[in-house]
Amino acid sequence: MKQRSSPRWSLCKATASLELVASTVFLAVLFNFIQGAKAQSYPNYSPVRYQLLHTYEGPSFFDQFNYYSDDDPTKGFVTYVNKNTAHALNLTSTTSTTATLRVDASTPSPSGGRNSVRVESNNTYDSGLFIFDIVHTPYGCGTWPALWLTDGANWPKNGEIDVLESHNHGSHGNEMSLHTTPGCSMGGERRQVGSAVESNCDVGVGGNAGCAVMGYRSTYGVGFNAGGGGVYSLEIRDAGIRIWNFPRSSIPADIHNGSPDPSTWNTPLADFPSTNCDIASHFRNLNIVANIDLCGEFAAMSSHYTQMYSCPGSCSDFVANNPSNFADAYWEFGGIRVYRAS
Ligand SMILES: *[C@@H]1O[C@H](CO)[C@@H](O)[C@H](O)[C@H]1NC(C)=O
Ligand SMILES: *[C@@H]1O[C@H](CO)[C@@H](O)[C@H](O)[C@H]1NC(C)=O
User: Fold this and answer.
1) Sequence ranges of the domains in the chain
2) Domain 48-176+213-235+284-341, CATH 2.60.120.200 — does that match?
3) Catalytic residue among 165, 175, 235, 332
4) Quick one: which atom of ligand 1 is closest to the CA of 330?
5) What residue owns the CA closest to ligand 1's atom 5?
6) Catalytic annotation present for 57
7) Which residue intervals define the domain GH16 in the entry (predicted)?
8) Which ligand is closest to the CA of 135, given by its number?
9) Cβ neighbours of residue 102 under 8 Å, at least 6 residues apart?
């Protein structure tokens, strides 16, 4: 058993400890302040020189894409067809300047799911600048289209970036989002035109809502398509992930002439800075994916399908029985160009 100290000694010690505590507290506060300032400082998006790496366009657009034909992991009323079937049904097609992916808009009452496509680039990317020239975005009751990047075999470890995502009539604007493992969130300063929805990108939080940013209405659907679509640009780098949207009439000249320089562009639509997210460790080995899901966990939600868009009856009944509903359910791309930092 330890001896109790004498009162006097105790007092001395107490004063000394108080000083020690005070200086420790002061140092701790100072340390946290510096760490906090460091953790919350906006990243340096210094100019990067980009050089062309891959081009997907015209008649060869689909050559470097694989057709995903397994069951839809998100339980949609959809049958993703393989390459031969997609060709035979004309669900993917090209011209000299465009590539189209569409939903089967003729089969009367398919059972088990309506035919659609989901293509995934064979090339994988850790970073870079992606220029998506989009002529038409798909929409219509029951649709859940997306243009995104992910590593399907290593999800969510290697991350998911949703560049375009919408549902049903799609006139509420484009929803851009990141989905990750724990330890990636958005907060502090962001320089973006869109509106932040959720801050935690962890798929385990908020029912995998992701850390989404909503674009204004004409960033998707009828409003976007009206002027012949435009360009979406995605930049993935250690400093952060940014997405820009340019209507056809205001595509920067440096995109047209093949030397894109994001440092000269306007404020992005979405900004996912690295402030509270180590981009390089959360995003890698990503395929470019374009698909049109039907119903599924997102489009069929009653808050979306019924309340937001007043789509009729049950999603799968409607999708099965109304082929003509899918006339506008198509992606049309002018091409995709991928640049890497030189
Ligand atoms: C195939 O689809 C494309 C794009 O939707 C369309 O322009 C073309 O006419 C179709 N071809 C046939 C043979 O139906
Ligand atoms: C797909 O990528 C792999 C690995 O990079 C490569 O070996 C293969 O040739 C590619 N296939 C096509 C069709 O481009």
Assistant:
1) 48-176+213-235+284-341
2) yes
3) 165
4) 5
5) 100
6) no
7) 35-314
8) 1
9) 90, 91, 92, 116, 117, 138, 292, 326, 329, 330, 331
